[in-house]
Every structure is written in structure tokens, then in C-alpha cells.
């Protein structure tokens, strides 16, 4: 006999077994997906904190290195000496001939040794840029480079080497260019009638020296200018179309301070000693020691006044 119905008793519903199986399968798939995701994260963390050592790919080409060929005595095959890099960039000729080539000049050779031909001769005060050093038979030779713009590049043929025994190493930073507006209390006054240069720091006189400004046909321009470029070495060549018809070829002009974009500069002069009267193609010529002193003191942006 059926039991009487109690309205307060809980109602029990029966879930079909097929539906139960679907729920179990979906739950299992979710567990597998989460497990896979966790494994992936763990693997990535392991790679991040404990990276595996990777092998570098082998270079396909040999690294280039500059060298110079030397004929070895008693051998048919030449040897190659490396041109080593140096920490400095410039050298100054300390032992060379005078302005008129009097005395012993420093020979520039086509290779690192006295068995190489002489390319040219250098006077005292020349400043040159160094591209490297070669050591041979207990002696060092500096390779000279001209990586500046040259008006007549055909005049430079072959390599230039100078013996380290006759030069001084210069620890100079190289080129300085004016960037933006720079205020300077320093000024350089060039008097063409007196052939004198005076440098001031504010109102205080720093130095004065005799100079040589431009000749009558190539005068140093009058006016107010600023030094916009400094460089310890410049290969100066002429003639300059529209400026000077004179031929000249002067490697390593030292301590250059440019104040016009047409090429007028204050610089050291190793090829004459005629200071106190005009002698240049428009530049301001100084004795080399005075030019170096001024170059070290002056800064780009310094005022230059050229007057009569």
C-alpha cells in the first residue's frame, strides 16, 4: 500500500545516467586543459630563470685586419705585419727641419722601415692624424691617414709612415664644432695694421703675439666673427678658386680655429717665420707654440674681431 504523501518532505529528482557521463567528460577535459596550461607556464618560467646555454653561430667570414707586406731577407715570400690600433689620434713632428728646410727633415716613408722609399719630408711643428702603429725590428712606425676632405687628393699617393722616435704623441680630442648658440666671454682681436693678435678673457689680457695676416690680394676679412670649428690638424692646399691663385701644399697645418665659412682660420705656421708682416692667403698665421697655447685656451663660440 502506498505511503501517504507528505507535502513537507524533500523532493528528489533523478538525473539520467547519460547526462551524468557528459558532465564527467567535460570536467575531465577542463582538468586536462588546466594541467597543460600549468605545465606550459612552469616550462616558460624555467626557461626565463634558468636559460639554456646557446651556441653562437659560426662566423661566415673572417674579420678584416689591416696589415702591411714586408720583404723578408732570404725569403721569396713576403711577411705581413699587423697595423695595430692606437689609443691616441695625433702626433706632432718634434725632430724635423726648419721652415726653409734647413737641417735634417723627418722622412715620410711608403712603408714601416728605412728600406722603403721616401714619399716626402716634414718640418718641425707638423701635426698629423694616426691610423695605426706597426712594430718592426724593435722600432715603431706610425701610419698616417688623411680622412678629411682634400681639395687636391691626387697629390697624396701611396701610404705614409713616420718613425715614432722623432714625434710626440698628442692626447687631443680631435674636431670641435659649434652646436647651437654658445655664449663665451673670450675674444680674440686681430689687428691688421699692427700685425698683432691679442686674446682676452673678459677684460683680462690672456696673451698677445705677432702674426701674419693676408697679403694685399688675399686679405684677411674684416669684421666680427665667432670660432665655429677647431681641429688640431688640416691639410691645406691651393690654389683656391675665387680666393687665391697661389699654389701650396701643406700637410698637417696645426691648431686650426676657423672663423669664416670661406676658409679663414687662425692656425700655427711651420713654413715661415715672417711674423709681424702680411704673408698669408687670408688666414691668420701664428708661431706654432703660440698657436697651440691659443688653441688650448679658446673655445668654439669665442668672438673674433678683425680690425685695422
Automatic annotation (TrEMBL):
The UniProt transmembrane annotation reads: 29-50
Tell me which UniProt keywords the record has, alphabetically. Cell shape, Cell wall biogenesis/degradation, Membrane, Peptidoglycan synthesis, Transferase, Transmembrane, Transmembrane helix
Q: Which PANTHER family match?
A: L,D-TRANSPEPTIDASE, L,D-TRANSPEPTIDASE YCIB-RELATED
The major lineage groups are:
Bacteria, Candidatus Giovannoniibacteriota
Question: Pathway, according to UniProt?
Answer: Cell wall biogenesis; peptidoglycan biosynthesis
Report the Gene3D superfamilies cross-referenced here: L,D-transpeptidase catalytic domain-like, SH3 Domains
List, in alphabetical order, the GO biological process terms annotated in this UniProt record. Answer: cell wall organization; peptidoglycan-protein cross-linking; regulation of cell shape
Q: Which residues form the L,D-TPase catalytic domain?
A: 186-307
Q: Name one GO cellular component term.
A: extracellular region
InterPro entries linked to this entry: LD-transpeptidase (IPR050979), LD_TPept_cat_dom (IPR005490), SH3-like_bac-type (IPR003646), Transpep_catalytic_dom (IPR038063)
Q: Which organism is it from?
A: Candidatus Giovannonibacteria bacterium GW2011_GWA2_44_13b
Q: Which GO terms describe its molecular function?
A: peptidoglycan L,D-transpeptidase activity; transferase activity
Name of the protein in its database record: ErfK/YbiS/YcfS/YnhG family protein
Q: Does the keyword Cell inner membrane apply?
A: no
Which SUPFAM superfamilies has this protein been placed in? Answer: L,D-transpeptidase catalytic domain-like (SSF141523)
Amino acid at each position: 500500500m502506498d505511503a501517504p504523501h507528505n507535502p513537507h518532505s524533500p523532493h528528489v529528482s533523478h538525473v539520467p545516467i547519460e547526462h551524468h557521463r557528459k558532465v564527467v567528460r567535460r570536467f575531465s577535459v577542463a582538468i586536462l586543459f588546466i594541467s597543460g596550461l600549468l605545465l606550459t607556464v612552469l616550462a616558460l618560467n624555467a626557461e626565463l630563470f634558468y636559460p639554456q646555454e646557446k651556441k653562437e653561430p659560426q662566423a661566415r667570414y673572417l674579420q678584416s685586419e689591416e696589415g702591411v707586406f714586408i720583404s723578408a731577407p732570404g725569403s721569396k715570400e713576403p711577411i705581413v705585419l699587423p697595423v695595430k690600433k692606437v689609443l691616441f689620434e695625433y702626433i706632432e713632428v718634434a725632430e724635423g727641419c726648419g721652415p726653409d728646410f734647413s737641417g735634417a727633415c723627418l722622412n715620410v716613408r711608403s712603408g714601416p722601415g728605412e728600406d722603403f722609399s721616401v714619399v716626402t719630408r716634414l718640418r718641425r711643428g707638423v701635426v698629423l692624424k694616426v691610423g695605426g702603429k706597426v712594430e718592426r725590428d724593435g722600432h715603431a712606425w706610425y701610419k698616417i691617414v688623411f680622412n678629411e676632405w682634400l681639395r687636391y687628393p691626387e697629390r697624396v699617393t701611396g701610404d705614409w709612415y713616420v718613425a715614432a722616435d722623432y714625434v710626440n704623441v698628442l692626447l687631443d680630442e680631435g674636431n670641435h664644432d659649434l652646436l647651437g648658440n654658445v655664449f663665451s666671454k673670450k675674444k680674440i682681436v686681430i689687428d691688421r695694421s699692427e700685425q698683432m693678435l691679442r686674446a682676452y678673457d673678459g677684460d683680462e689680457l690672456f696673451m698677445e703675439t705677432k702674426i701674419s695676416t693676408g697679403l694685399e690680394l688675399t686679405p684677411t676679412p674684416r669684421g666680427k666673427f665667432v670660432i665655429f670649428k677647431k681641429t688640431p690638424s688640416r691639410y691645406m692646399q691651393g690654389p683656391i678658386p675665387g680666393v687665391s691663385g697661389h699654389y701650396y701644399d701643406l700637410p698637417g697645418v696645426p691648431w686650426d680655429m676657423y672663423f669664416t665659412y670661406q676658409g679663414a682660420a687662425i692656425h700655427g705656421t711651420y713654413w715661415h717665420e715672417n711674423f709681424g708682416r702680411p704673408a698669408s692667403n687670408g688666414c691668420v698665421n701664428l708661431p706654432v707654440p703660440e698657436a697651440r697655447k691659443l688653441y688650448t685656451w679658446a673655445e668654439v663660440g669665442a668672438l673674433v674681431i678683425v680690425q685695422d
